[in-house]
Every structure is written in C-alpha cells, then in structure tokens.
Amino acid sequence: MIGAALFFRVHQISRDGKLAILDAVGFAVPFGWAIGRMGCYLVHDHPGIRTSNWLGVHYPGGTRYDLGLLEIFFLLALGAAFLILGKETRPRGFFRAVLFLSYGTFRLLEDRVTIDPPRYFGWSVDQIAAAVMIALGLAALVGMNKSRMSGWIRYVTSLA
User: Fold this and answer.
1) Would residue 11 count as lying in a domain?
2) Cross-strand pairs, 123
3) For residue 75, what pLDDT is reported?
4) N or C, fewer C-beta in 10 Å, the chain?
5) Is the separation of the CB atoms in 104 and 31 below 8 Å?
6) Number of domain units in the chain
7) pTM, whole model, 2 decimals?
8) What is the DSSP string of 64-131?
9) Quick count: other Cβ atoms within 10 Å of Cβ 70?
C-alpha cells in the first residue's frame, strides 16, 4: 500500500485512475496469491489443527489441516467468481471491496483451525488483519456508494 501511494504521488495519478488501478489489482490478487500459496502448501509451511477430514495432510504426529491448501481452494474459487463477475461492467471499486470483504472473512474463519496463533490483547494476528481487511472492504463499499450517489445527484440536478 505504501508503494502504491508513492507510485500514485510520483506519477500524479488522478483519483479515478487510482480507483481503476486498485480495482484491477483487486481483480488479479486471487490468482497471484493462489500461486504464492502453492509454495506454502508444497513445503507444508502452515500446519493447522488435527483432523480426520479428507482435506487433511499427513504431518509428523498425525493428519492436520494445511492452511496453505485451504487458502488455495478459497482463492481459486474467488478467482473463478471474479472471472464470472468480470464479464459484465461493475462499479469502480467492486473487485477491491469484494476481495477485502471475502478474504478478510475467510481469514477470520480460518483462524479457528490455526494452532496457537500469537495474540495481542486477546486477538490473534490473523483476526486483527482480518478485521482491518473487512474495514477496508466496507470503506470501499461506502466509496462506491458515494460515487454512485454523486453521479445520481449530478443527473437529477442536470434535469432541473
């Protein structure tokens, strides 16, 4: 985000340009992130709680959820949904909002199968990050509605 802010400032990107770029990035993130998580899965970097579920992976000491694998499945499903939703024109900010809201919710749920995550003030790091992502998604939704509302107001005032 800091890099994007610097890029926007150096290149003096307009507000509409910023929103278009951020939405394009939001559309692309599930695909790239899924590839990155494949590395996590291949080395079994993120073991979860023990399970007998078919999604379990054999670890020393028993079968556990592999959080990288769970995330790959989620990101591929989200990417497929984005491909379907991307066939029609969506309001600017749509993919960014859906990415933050859905991924934040997923990480909040995934925290339930994480082994002893570090906690601060009773919240795990994933819960904190998920709350921030959900807040960013809600802010993106509010921004989308403001821009739609301002367009509607311009339309109504032009009629008058």
Assistant:
1) no
2) 120
3) 97
4) C
5) no
6) 1
7) 0.81
8) EEEHHHHHHHHHHHHHHHHHHHTTS---TTHHHHHHHHHHHHHHHHHGGGBSS--EETTEEHHHHHHH
9) 19
Of 143, 43, 27, 133, nearest to 89 by C-alpha is 27
Q: CB within 8 A of 93, min separation 6: which ones?
A: 19, 22, 23, 140, 141, 143, 144, 147
31: tokens are 């695909």
Q: pLDDT averaged over consecutive 10-residue blocks of the chain (160 residues)?
A: 84 86 91 94 90 90 92 96 91 89 94 85 89 91 67 50
Contact 13, 21 (CB under 8 A): yes
Q: What residues contact 117, with CB distance under 8 A and at least 6 apart?
A: 111, 124, 125, 126
Q: Let me know if residue 9 belongs to a domain.
A: no
Q: Which among 72, 94, 90 is positioned nearest to 26, based on CA atoms?
A: 94
Whole-number Å distance between alpha carbons of 1 and 26: 12
Domain range for residue 72? 17-159
- Token pair for 21: 């770029």
Q: Is residue 2 assigned to a domain?
A: no
On whether residue 147 sits in a domain, the answer given is: yes
